[in-house]
Structures
1.
Amino acid sequence: MEIKVKLNGKWIVDNIDPDMLLLDFCRAHYCKSVKRGCETSNCGLCTVWLDGKPVLSCNVLAARADGHEVTTLEGLQEEAKEFGMFLAREGGEQCGFCNPGFIMNVLAMKRELDNPTDEEILEYLAGNLCRCSGYASHMRAIHKWLDSKKEAAQREDHIPENREKMLAHRLSKRTQKHW
Amino acid sequence: MITIQKYLKAASLEEAWNANQKRPNRVLGGMGWMKMSSGNVSTAIDLSGLGLDQIEETDDAFIIGAMVTLRQFETHEGLEQYFHGAVRESVRHIVGVQFRNCATIGGSVWLRAGFSDPLTLLLALDCTVELYQGGDQTVQVPIAEFCHMKPDNSILTAVHIHKTGRQAAYQSFRNTETDFPVRAVAVSRLDSSYCAAVGARPTRAMAVTAEQVDQLIEKAQALPYGDNLRASAEYRTMLAGVLIRRAAEELERR
Ligand SMILES: Cc1cc2nc3c(=O)[nH]c(=O)nc-3n(C[C@H](O)[C@H](O)[C@H](O)COP(=O)(O)OP(=O)(O)OC[C@H]3O[C@@H](n4cnc5c(N)ncnc54)[C@H](O)[C@@H]3O)c2cc1C
Ligand code: FES
Ligand code: FES
């Protein structure tokens, strides 16, 4: 069957078997960060985003992605590299096998949760297994990375011209509402 | 892993229902459980184009489409407010966010699995299952009855949670995070009457009712429990008592 998938921003048309998993589709299209750690939905290593939401690609048929957008680590290189540095600095990267799926889910969490508590972070990432680190280094890396993001946002906010732009933006939103 | 010969993205419920009348064909939910089985599927019937992925809140009910994911169920604001977190609590320990973005309410209810957390919760609520049976005919089956029905060739289209004022609290116990529950318990109260649904017996959940919490626990502990590699029947019986009491206390505190 023919499917059309927007993989990392590029539309791809392919002829696939109806039972092909999204995991194998991604790998066939050179997204080798997507790996099979278990295929029983337990490890989180195969995490990709489907229309911006993290899913287990070992649990989704490629046919389901027809007409939809799929993002892998290859499509998020800048952000992945940035968080990856925090992870490495805290010793969260040992054998490194779990990293691609873990990073995909951390980046998804950042988009979904504002100022998550430790419990919320642990719950969001519970489906990503790491057999080396014991997760303490992961938690340190996440906190430091989130803090650095917050500080960067605050700095942006303090630059006078940005502040003016932001105020103007808020004002225009209010006016729009009024209309 | 199953093999699939043909993929049908159904354009209407009637088309899906017709295809589902032939046994080697199967409806796809989120694929979570189906993928773990083996065998040959002639036609996999995809319901994702039928608009069944929404939760509708009316004055009388929450209507949860079959293709609503467990994560949508978990994060829906209306359900969160009405049931004070019980819905979220019932699914938040299932594997991980990425899995809950795949697994559906339709597949979870249809499966009628013994370990099912959402089924345990729904069994303690005033809930009916909407089944499409061809020729534009739908029936509503009370959840307790549905639990004991043999799977037929209907299409599960939605789960209705009726707003009767019944309140619920949910408790589960796992040997380790993301594992199947060793014990799942939902306690609900309407006026002065309690209901406790007890899942992971380890077979399918059952419900008991009583006017007093002590009676409720006694009745729940008298249900048949079995051993499996996760826990013994004796341990499950003890956990039933502890978790029902905790859930009932939570209801008291509200
Ligand atoms: C590793 C793992 C751990 C799990 N842990 C838990 C847990 O701790 N607690 C828990 O409650 N659950 C758990 N589950 C079960 C999971 O939450 C889902 O209930 C399960 O995957 C079924 O949902 P699905 O949408 O994936 O359905 P599928 O696997 O796609 O389908 C299941 C069955 O239902 C049929 N079906 C699906 N939708 C319909 C429909 N609309 N009409 C008619 N028939 C239909 C299918 O043909 C199939 O026979 C776990 C599953 C896995 C794989
Ligand atoms: S390979 Fe998908 S969860 Fe392990
Ligand atoms: S670093 Fe080895 S599995 Fe996570």
2.
Amino acid sequence: MPNNPASSAPVVIFDNVSLRYGETVALDQVSFQVNAGQTWVFLGEAGSGKTQMCKVMMGLVRPDSGRVVIFGDEISSKGEREMFAVRAKIGMLFQESALFDSMTIEENVAYPLENQPVRHCGPEQIHDRVVEALRFVELEKTLDKVPSELSGGMRRRVGIARATVTQPPLAIYDSPTAGLDPITANNIMAFIAKQRDLKGTTSIIVSHRYQDGVLMANYYYDEAQGRLIAATGERLASVHTTFVVMQAGRIVFVGPQTELEASTDPYVSKFGRR
Amino acid sequence: MLDLLKPSFLEFQEFFYLAGRALKNIFRKPHYWDDVLLQMDVIGVGSLPIVSLIGAFSGIVMALQMSRAVAQYGASSQTGTFVAIVLVRELGPVLTALLVAGRNASGIASEIGSMKVTDQIDAMRALGTDPNQKLVTPRMLALAFVLPLLTIIADFVGLCGGFLIGKYRLNISAAQYWNSAQQALVWNDVAQGLLKPFLFSFVISLVGCFYGIRTTGGTQGVGRSTTEAVVVSSVWVFILDVFVTQIFVNM
Ligand SMILES: Nc1ncnc2c1ncn2[C@@H]1O[C@H](COP(=O)(O)OP(=O)(O)OP(=O)(O)O)[C@@H](O)[C@H]1O
Ligand SMILES: [Mg+2]
């Protein structure tokens, strides 16, 4: 479903968001706006504040100052209980997957369906939804396993299934490819692109790898062929990806791939090379 | 000096905030009864063997110690009285609480602490659950129910241990031992013998959860929280014991 990202409604607004841990500045006056259907890729060195940015977006960490608006709701002032309704619209893959290791894969993926105050489906449909989400990441055979029995790449895929089982309109993927070999990493990115292109999910991707962004910006998932295909013409607009580079909690670059690759800033250009 | 007190004052405040939320959650939906039952099994059934064992030994040792002391007054037949009073009022509740603190305050702190450092606590919040309601309240309820029961069992096994010594070393008849034990216990003893473990249970579960949830700094941090949870909950068991005993002694 090709979207026209330019004209759609704002999904995420960060307005001068700052976050400090004692002396450490995790986020420094961060401002940006993500609209429905868009893809945003956040790059930056270790400790530049990418994970904290994701957690602020999810309402898990309260910023010290600034405004965060998600689907038109200002969340910076909301209480924990009010946040559940907002979080139900966001799927999040945590950096280390954060699967519940006391539960089976099936219970992990079923968790948001069973626990979110917003009802996504009837109790009798939960099993089917879980199997469907796991089939999406090609892991439907691992239902009864526990996370410790899976490889790192498989855990990421379960994490993606758990984040997207409710079909949230916004998905945040924190470092989905970190620590994986290139082939596994590409597979994971293919699932993320598939989710975006088949379900129209607004996607926020944090990564160390520029290739991940390039893939999101230039390929789309073709349902008929069941694989990623280089986007051309009108398709290119639907996969249009905005790149952000962060340094020490600040946004030092925002723009499309061409601009990132043309950047002469020594820090920024480091991230625009394959 | 004031600067030294400030962090511990903040810690207290945080602790009571957590405890208050956990208590409030008893009356709020959703209720995770499955987790309560699971914790009862983990804490109650899991602690049963060690609690019985220590209960038996403390009864035996006490009967042996008492037998010499009371023999001086020619009151060997009253061994049951002494064992019952000391066990039910004091040793049963405190020993059981210390064992469970060592076994389960640490277990709770390390389990929740590892969940914290691997982002599972945040994942819970992200996926629609309040970690306090899902993790703290069930453990608190389970322990409040299970610790008095474990104490009763420890008391009973201890009395039986005392009985073995009475019968085979001091030649006290069964009727004599159990009668003197039964007569020794008035409602005051039983009340404090049950109130104590009930109060201790909150110290153990909440301190365990508190140190678990505030864990930072990876695997090392989990180890640190675990140790702190055991030390702090054990100390507070003793402090609380002094207060409760003081109240009952004055009654
Ligand atoms: N709980 C915390 N206490 C203190 N400092 C923290 C805490 N969490 C994050 N920080 C600091 O905030 C900064 C941003 O961290 P963040 O995890 O967002 O980095 P990141 O860009 O995700 O790094 P990586 O690529 O390694 O995942 C870091 O300097 C980090 O040390
Ligand atoms: Mg990170």
